[in-house]
Design brief:
With 253 residues, the chain is an alpha/beta fold. It is 16% helix and 27% strand. The chain contains six helices and 14 strands. The strands form two sheets. Strands 6-5-4-3-2-1-14 form a seven-stranded mixed β-sheet. Strand 8 and strand 9 form a beta hairpin.
């Protein structure tokens, strides 16, 4: 199974518009961060996690083939704003989009034309599937278990796919959800910046401590803003088994 980080940035991306900090002015491609999204692929199956506003740009870098499932973590624009750009993939048939009830209800309001009884020609052909947390769903040969983390006061969805756990926008997690992280090999989790004072996101220290609780063999940090600093410098400070991910990075699980 292969994981591709399509985007590893926070809601405004990196560089941030109008910013002249070292990170935003960096010419290192590792410091260019589109909004968070990822592909999980095997020879026969392709799963997309989140469709943010950079989805079109991200998919232009990837082979054009069927998407078997789209997993949405939550409704915030930086994670669901690119849903309309699924249109080209509808030539392979309806695209199955999995979302919890909060996200599914919000989608019906934000992009109602995608779900109208009589859709206009060219509208995305989306099959919206309401997932239930802790209930396994199968995408071809892959088993996906959705579970819950807390984005501030908003409960959002994290995903366990085999030995991979993908978590974004987490501030806290209830102890009862930790069972779904048992024996994870590869952990992907958010780390906004070093400053610890955000109400809805983990800091780097929070993410490192969480990674130690999980005990994964390797951990990749995502959803990082420009305040985190230069990619190369951050990774020198982190433990070897916990590294800042970058856009376009591919890992085998």
């Amino acid at each position: 199974m292969k994981l591709t980080f399509l985007g590893t940035g926070t809601s405004v991306g990196v560089p941030a518009i109008g910013c002249t900090c070292r990170t935003c002015l960096s010419t290192d491609p590792h410091d260019k961060r589109l909004r968070c999204s990822a592909l999980v692929e095997t020879e026969h199956t392709r799963i997309l996690i989140d469709t943010g506003p950079d989805f079109r740009q991200q998919m232009l870098t990837q082979p054009f083939r069927k998407i078997d499932a789209v997993l949405l973590t939550h409704i915030h624009y930086d994670h669901a704003g690119g849903i309309d750009d699924l249109r080209p993939f509808c030539q392979f048939g309806e695209v199955n989009v999995y979302a919890d009830d909060i996200t599914a209800d919000a989608l019906m309001h934000t992009v109602p034309y995608c779900f109208a009884e009589h859709r206009y020609p060219g509208a995305p052909k989306i099959n919206l599937v309401r997932l239930k947390h802790h209930k396994e769903l199968k995408v071809n040969e892959l088993k996906v278990i959705p579970f819950v983390v807390n984005h501030g006061k908003l409960p959002i969805t994290a995903f366990r796919i085999g030995k991979l756990a993908y978590i974004t926008d987490m501030k806290t997690i209830d102890e009862s959800e930790m069972a779904y992280l048992h024996d994870v090999d590869t952990l992907v989790v958010n780390a906004l910046r070093y400053a610890p004072d955000h109400h809805a996101h983990q800091s780097v220290a929070d993410a490192v401590a969480f990674a130690r609780r999980v005990g994964a063999r390797q951990t990749f940090l995502i959803h990082s803003c420009h305040d985190i600093g230069l990619h190369a410098e951050v990774n020198k400070k982190l433990p070897p088994d916990i590294q800042l991910a970058y856009d376009g990075q591919q890992i085998v699980i």
